[in-house]
Amino acid sequence: MIFWKGIITGLILSLPFGPVGIYCMEKAMIEGEKKAYVSALGMVTVDIIYGIISFLFISRVESYVIKFETPLKVLISVFLIFVGSKKFFGKPKVKEVEDDNYTLVQDYFETFLLAIFNISSILVIAGIYTLLGILDSPIREMTVLELGTGIGIGGASLWFTTIFLIYHFKKKVTMDILLKLSKLSGLIILIFGIATIIFAFYK
To answer: Which chain regions cross the lipid bilayer (predicted)?
Structure first.
Protein backbone atom coordinates (compact mmCIF):
# COMPACT_ATOMS: atom_id res chain seq x y z
CA MET A 1 0.00 0.00 0.00
CA ILE A 2 2.82 2.40 0.88
CA PHE A 3 4.32 1.76 -2.57
CA TRP A 4 1.18 2.97 -4.37
CA LYS A 5 0.91 5.98 -2.08
CA GLY A 6 4.52 6.72 -3.01
CA ILE A 7 3.58 6.63 -6.70
CA ILE A 8 0.74 9.10 -6.08
CA THR A 9 3.16 11.33 -4.17
CA GLY A 10 5.64 11.18 -7.05
CA LEU A 11 2.94 12.07 -9.57
CA ILE A 12 1.82 15.11 -7.57
CA LEU A 13 5.37 16.32 -6.93
CA SER A 14 6.18 16.04 -10.65
CA LEU A 15 3.37 18.32 -11.77
CA PRO A 16 5.16 20.95 -13.89
CA PHE A 17 3.99 23.94 -11.87
CA GLY A 18 7.37 25.57 -11.23
CA PRO A 19 9.99 27.38 -13.31
CA VAL A 20 12.23 24.29 -13.40
CA GLY A 21 9.35 22.20 -14.75
CA ILE A 22 8.67 24.69 -17.54
CA TYR A 23 12.41 24.81 -18.22
CA CYS A 24 12.45 21.02 -18.77
CA MET A 25 9.44 21.16 -21.08
CA GLU A 26 10.97 23.97 -23.12
CA LYS A 27 14.22 22.01 -23.20
CA ALA A 28 12.33 19.15 -24.89
CA MET A 29 11.34 21.48 -27.73
CA ILE A 30 14.80 22.98 -28.21
CA GLU A 31 17.31 20.26 -27.30
CA GLY A 32 15.32 17.04 -27.68
CA GLU A 33 13.44 14.64 -25.44
CA LYS A 34 16.50 12.72 -24.20
CA LYS A 35 18.22 15.77 -22.68
CA ALA A 36 14.93 17.06 -21.31
CA TYR A 37 14.05 13.75 -19.68
CA VAL A 38 17.49 13.36 -18.07
CA SER A 39 17.11 16.91 -16.74
CA ALA A 40 13.69 16.03 -15.31
CA LEU A 41 15.19 13.00 -13.57
CA GLY A 42 17.37 15.43 -11.62
CA MET A 43 14.19 16.90 -10.10
CA VAL A 44 12.71 13.45 -9.48
CA THR A 45 15.85 12.45 -7.57
CA VAL A 46 15.42 15.46 -5.29
CA ASP A 47 11.77 14.48 -4.74
CA ILE A 48 12.89 11.01 -3.64
CA ILE A 49 15.50 12.42 -1.26
CA TYR A 50 13.15 14.99 0.29
CA GLY A 51 10.34 12.43 0.38
CA ILE A 52 12.39 9.98 2.43
CA ILE A 53 13.81 12.71 4.69
CA SER A 54 10.32 14.07 5.37
CA PHE A 55 8.97 10.61 6.21
CA LEU A 56 11.84 9.76 8.55
CA PHE A 57 11.82 13.13 10.30
CA ILE A 58 8.07 13.38 10.81
CA SER A 59 7.91 9.77 11.98
CA ARG A 60 10.64 10.45 14.56
CA VAL A 61 8.63 13.30 16.09
CA GLU A 62 5.37 11.36 15.84
CA SER A 63 4.34 12.16 19.42
CA TYR A 64 4.47 15.89 18.69
CA VAL A 65 2.68 15.39 15.37
CA ILE A 66 -0.15 13.54 17.11
CA LYS A 67 -0.34 16.15 19.88
CA PHE A 68 -0.59 19.08 17.47
CA GLU A 69 -2.09 17.15 14.56
CA THR A 70 -4.90 19.51 13.60
CA PRO A 71 -2.88 22.79 13.85
CA LEU A 72 -0.05 21.22 11.84
CA LYS A 73 -2.44 20.03 9.14
CA VAL A 74 -4.01 23.48 8.96
CA LEU A 75 -0.57 25.12 8.74
CA ILE A 76 0.52 22.78 5.95
CA SER A 77 -2.79 23.29 4.14
CA VAL A 78 -2.42 27.06 4.27
CA PHE A 79 1.07 26.71 2.82
CA LEU A 80 -0.22 24.51 -0.03
CA ILE A 81 -2.99 27.00 -0.75
CA PHE A 82 -0.41 29.81 -0.78
CA VAL A 83 1.91 27.91 -3.16
CA GLY A 84 -0.97 26.88 -5.45
CA SER A 85 -2.39 30.42 -5.54
CA LYS A 86 1.01 31.92 -6.26
CA LYS A 87 1.57 29.53 -9.16
CA PHE A 88 -1.97 29.89 -10.49
CA PHE A 89 -2.25 33.68 -10.33
CA GLY A 90 1.41 34.56 -10.84
CA LYS A 91 3.78 34.31 -13.79
CA PRO A 92 6.86 32.16 -13.17
CA LYS A 93 10.30 33.43 -14.06
CA VAL A 94 11.56 30.83 -16.48
CA LYS A 95 15.24 30.29 -17.19
CA GLU A 96 15.86 30.68 -20.92
CA VAL A 97 16.88 27.53 -22.72
CA GLU A 98 19.75 27.68 -25.18
CA ASP A 99 21.09 24.85 -27.26
CA ASP A 100 24.22 24.11 -25.24
CA ASN A 101 26.97 21.50 -25.32
CA TYR A 102 26.13 20.01 -21.93
CA THR A 103 26.52 16.27 -21.50
CA LEU A 104 23.59 14.28 -20.13
CA VAL A 105 25.33 14.14 -16.75
CA GLN A 106 25.59 17.94 -16.70
CA ASP A 107 21.92 18.24 -17.68
CA TYR A 108 20.98 15.95 -14.79
CA PHE A 109 22.97 17.82 -12.15
CA GLU A 110 21.87 21.22 -13.43
CA THR A 111 18.22 20.60 -12.54
CA PHE A 112 19.21 18.56 -9.48
CA LEU A 113 20.97 21.62 -8.03
CA LEU A 114 18.11 23.93 -9.03
CA ALA A 115 15.59 21.67 -7.29
CA ILE A 116 17.63 20.82 -4.18
CA PHE A 117 17.50 24.44 -3.00
CA ASN A 118 13.69 24.49 -3.14
CA ILE A 119 13.33 23.56 0.54
CA SER A 120 9.65 24.54 0.51
CA SER A 121 8.88 21.30 -1.35
CA ILE A 122 9.31 19.49 1.99
CA LEU A 123 6.13 21.15 3.25
CA VAL A 124 4.33 20.15 0.05
CA ILE A 125 5.45 16.57 0.69
CA ALA A 126 4.22 16.78 4.29
CA GLY A 127 0.81 17.90 3.02
CA ILE A 128 0.64 15.00 0.58
CA TYR A 129 1.63 12.54 3.32
CA THR A 130 -1.06 13.94 5.58
CA LEU A 131 -3.83 13.51 3.03
CA LEU A 132 -2.71 10.05 1.92
CA GLY A 133 -2.18 8.79 5.47
CA ILE A 134 1.42 7.81 4.78
CA LEU A 135 2.53 8.89 8.24
CA ASP A 136 0.36 6.14 9.75
CA SER A 137 2.79 3.57 8.34
CA PRO A 138 5.47 2.23 10.75
CA ILE A 139 9.15 2.94 10.03
CA ARG A 140 10.83 -0.09 8.48
CA GLU A 141 13.62 -0.37 5.94
CA MET A 142 11.17 -1.94 3.51
CA THR A 143 8.68 0.89 4.06
CA VAL A 144 11.28 3.54 3.26
CA LEU A 145 12.44 1.58 0.20
CA GLU A 146 8.87 1.14 -1.08
CA LEU A 147 8.08 4.82 -0.53
CA GLY A 148 11.23 6.02 -2.29
CA THR A 149 10.73 3.60 -5.19
CA GLY A 150 7.10 4.65 -5.55
CA ILE A 151 7.98 8.35 -5.63
CA GLY A 152 10.67 7.66 -8.24
CA ILE A 153 8.40 5.59 -10.49
CA GLY A 154 5.51 8.06 -10.21
CA GLY A 155 7.67 11.08 -10.97
CA ALA A 156 9.69 9.43 -13.75
CA SER A 157 6.50 8.11 -15.42
CA LEU A 158 4.76 11.48 -15.41
CA TRP A 159 7.81 13.29 -16.78
CA PHE A 160 8.35 10.64 -19.45
CA THR A 161 4.75 11.13 -20.61
CA THR A 162 4.92 14.93 -20.37
CA ILE A 163 8.17 15.28 -22.30
CA PHE A 164 7.13 12.68 -24.89
CA LEU A 165 3.94 14.66 -25.64
CA ILE A 166 5.71 18.05 -25.59
CA TYR A 167 8.44 16.83 -27.96
CA HIS A 168 6.17 15.11 -30.47
CA PHE A 169 3.70 18.01 -30.57
CA LYS A 170 6.31 20.77 -30.26
CA LYS A 171 5.10 22.48 -33.43
CA LYS A 172 1.81 23.19 -31.68
CA VAL A 173 3.25 23.95 -28.24
CA THR A 174 4.08 27.55 -27.40
CA MET A 175 5.41 29.24 -24.26
CA ASP A 176 1.87 30.43 -23.61
CA ILE A 177 0.69 26.81 -23.51
CA LEU A 178 3.54 25.89 -21.14
CA LEU A 179 2.54 28.72 -18.82
CA LYS A 180 -1.07 27.53 -18.91
CA LEU A 181 0.13 24.05 -17.96
CA SER A 182 1.98 25.63 -15.07
CA LYS A 183 -1.17 27.45 -13.95
CA LEU A 184 -3.18 24.23 -14.21
CA SER A 185 -0.66 22.44 -12.01
CA GLY A 186 -0.80 25.34 -9.55
CA LEU A 187 -4.58 25.02 -9.48
CA ILE A 188 -4.25 21.31 -8.67
CA ILE A 189 -1.94 22.14 -5.75
CA LEU A 190 -4.42 24.81 -4.60
CA ILE A 191 -7.31 22.31 -4.67
CA PHE A 192 -5.08 19.79 -2.89
CA GLY A 193 -4.44 22.32 -0.12
CA ILE A 194 -8.16 23.02 0.28
CA ALA A 195 -8.86 19.27 0.41
CA THR A 196 -6.16 18.83 3.05
CA ILE A 197 -7.62 21.52 5.33
CA ILE A 198 -11.11 20.03 4.96
CA PHE A 199 -9.71 16.60 5.74
CA ALA A 200 -7.94 17.99 8.84
CA PHE A 201 -11.18 19.24 10.40
CA TYR A 202 -13.24 16.29 9.17
CA LYS A 203 -10.97 13.77 10.85
So the answer is: 6-25, 37-58, 64-83, 112-135, 147-169, 181-202
